[in-house]
Design goal:
It is built from 2 helices and 5 strands, in the order αβββαββ. The protein has 116 residues and is an alpha+beta fold. A 5-stranded antiparallel β-sheet has the order 1-2-3-5-4, covered by helices on one side. Bound molecules: guanosine-5'-monophosphate and zinc ion.
Length: 116
């Protein structure tokens, strides 16, 4: 299911251009428009899921696939040895600004902890 008013649904449908690095039947991955690290890729399901609060058991496989794709892209970006990070913000207080779940894959520099 997709939501025509959702930015990431529209990117997945190629209605809005993005620098796509991977797509398959269930997932799309593309470069973040405002990268916070040398590697900053967003991994989304094609299905519209607004936030982590909306996850259901039926999403188990796609959420697993998002992580496996992140692992593949991290390897392709040469990040394995130095380290890399996955972030998924849930809700406004956590900094979520696009309400279609997305994994941020970040790497290529030393990342501070705790996050802001
Ligand atoms: P959030 O703040 O919801 O966790 O992350 C949303 C991310 O989407 C931000 O890092 C932001 O830079 C990125 N973003 C927002 N609009 C666009 C867009 O039109 N294209 C791409 N490629 N990234 C976007
Ligand atoms: Zn959407």
């Amino acid at each position: 299911m997709s939501d025509p008013s959702c930015l990431f649904c529209r990117i997945a449908a190629h209605d809005i251009p993005a620098d796509i690095v991977h797509e398959d039947q269930r997932l799309v991955a593309f470069h973040d428009i405002r990268p916070q690290a040398p590697t900053h890729v967003l991994i989304i399901p094609r299905d519209h899921i607004a936030t982590l609060n909306d996850l259901e058991p039926a999403h188990r496989e796609v959420v697993g696939e998002m992580h496996l794709l992140a692992r593949e892209l991290a390897r392709a970006e040469g990040l394995e040895e130095a380290g890399w990070r996955l972030v998924m913000n849930c809700g406004a207080a956590a900094g979520q600004t696009v309400f279609h779940i997305h994994l941020h894959l970040l790497g290529g520099r030393t990342l501070g902890w705790p996050p802001g």
